[in-house]
Amino acid sequence: MGKAERGALAQGLVRCHACGHLAQLRRARHCPVCGSVLHARRPHSLQHTLALLISSYALYIPANIFPIMTVNQFGVIERHTIIGGIFALVEKDMAPIAALVFIASIMVPLLKLLGLSTLLLNVRLRWQRHPQWWMRMYRLIVFVGRWSMLDIFMISILVAVVDLSGGVSQVIAGPAATAFAAVVVLTMLAAKSLDPRLIWDKQNKL
Predict the structure, then answer these.
(1) 18-66 tens-digit pLDDT
(2) CB 198, CB 45: distance < 8 Å
(3) In 3-state terms, what secondary structure has residue 90?
(4) Do 104 and 26 belong together in one domain?
(5) pTM (2 d.p.)
(6) Radius of gyration (Cα) for the chain, nearest Å?
(7) Closest Cα partner for 184 from 127, 146, 138?
(8) What is d(CA 179, CA 58) in angstroms, rounded to the nearest whole number?
(9) How far apart are CA 179 and CA 177, in angstroms?
(10) Helices marked H in the chain — which ranges?
């Protein structure tokens, strides 16, 4: 793939970011199919990805420190963080659900952050070995990104179910829910903003 990509660029061929059409960059600056501006590589890809990644790291801390939901049952108020909710599920003999929440809400976002950071280092430092492996890693990060919203989905369902139960209990989303959702969205945008073709441009100036 690296040789094919360099050969395409040497011939002035670029792939449109909008429609995927393969066009001659030397003949036109705009895609002949959709009219989008043609770029050999996505402009400022590393800078955009780094900015989104730093924002994700900053929000990951309050997402795990502050309560993600507040439960009011018969006047007794309980505030649960993500970790606290996992321990509560374990205490109620719901270990499989606790494991699922731990993987989707703790491990997946953290591994995505570390994975994207490693990819940025790979591109910046021009690591030469195993580009196929780095591409598989990038595709995996893009694929699993959406599944990190499990906690938000659970809170939404829980709020709806409790509201339908007659008002005996009340579930309110906490500040961590907003921070957590922002982390998920920002990491998804960071993965999308990173141009994976940069992984193959080892010998080129970034």
Answers:
(1) 676 777 766 667 777 777 777 767 778 889 999 999 999 999 999 889 9
(2) yes
(3) helix
(4) no
(5) 0.73
(6) 22
(7) 146
(8) 9
(9) 5
(10) 2-10, 45-65, 82-91, 95-102, 108-125, 131-144, 150-163, 175-193
Helix, strand or coil, per DSSP, at residue 93: coil
DSSP code for 42? -
Helix 175-193 to helix 45-65 angle (10° resolution) is 160
Residue whose token pair is 């073709």: 197
Asked whether the beta carbons of 59 and 53 are under 8 A apart, the reply is no
Q: Tokens for 4?
A: 């094919």
170 and 79 in a single domain? The answer is yes
Q: Which tens digit of pLDDT belongs to each residue from 59-106?
A: 999 988 998 877 777 777 778 788 887 887 788 787 887 787 788 788
Are 90 and 186 members of one domain? yes
Are β-strands 76-80 and 22-24 bridged in parallel, bridged antiparallel, or unpaired? unpaired
Q: Please, what's the largest Cα pairwise distance for the chain?
A: 72
| Residues of the domain holding 166 | 44-200
Are 59 and 112 a contacting pair, CB within 8 Å? no
User: How many structural domains compose the chain?
Assistant: 2
> What tokens were used for 200?
């193959």
The residues that bridge with 80 in the sheet, in sequence order, are: 69
